[in-house]
Amino acid sequence: MTAITLHLTNLKDIKQVEKLAKKLNVTIEKKEEESPYDPVFVAKILKSEEDMKNGLGKKIAIKDLWK
């Protein structure tokens, strides 16, 4: 038995590899990698992006940061 590891991020590519494996009668083991980021941190970032879309934030130009 030979193992090959593919690191695919594009859903289209994943589906194509799955189709090819099926045609070749090869089994695939999928393993989702965990995010290296703290879930609480990610939730805060996503919430802040949503707040900005809803007009609940304020953008400051970089040149005005230290005024």
Describe this structure in words.
The protein has 67 residues and is mainly α. It has one domain (11-64). It has two helices and no strands. The model has no long low-confidence stretch (mean pLDDT 89).
Explain the layout of strands and helices:
Elements: H1 11-23, H2 39-53
Question: What's this, in brief?
Answer:
By secondary structure, the chain is an all-alpha fold. The protein has helices at 11-23, 39-53.
Taken together, the total number of domains comes to 1
> Which percent bin holds the helix content?
40-55%
* Low-pLDDT sequence parts: none
Number of helices: 2
Radius of gyration: 21 Å
Percentage beta strand: under 5%
Number-wise, the strands total: 0
SSE arrangement, N to C: HH
What's the end-to-end separation, in Å? 65 Å
Tell the overall outline.
Answer: elongated
| Major β-sheet profile | none
Q: Can you give the mean pLDDT?
A: 89
What class do helices, strands and sheet pairing give?
Answer: mainly alpha
Labels describing this entry:
mainly alpha, 42% helix, 2 helices, elongated, 67 residues
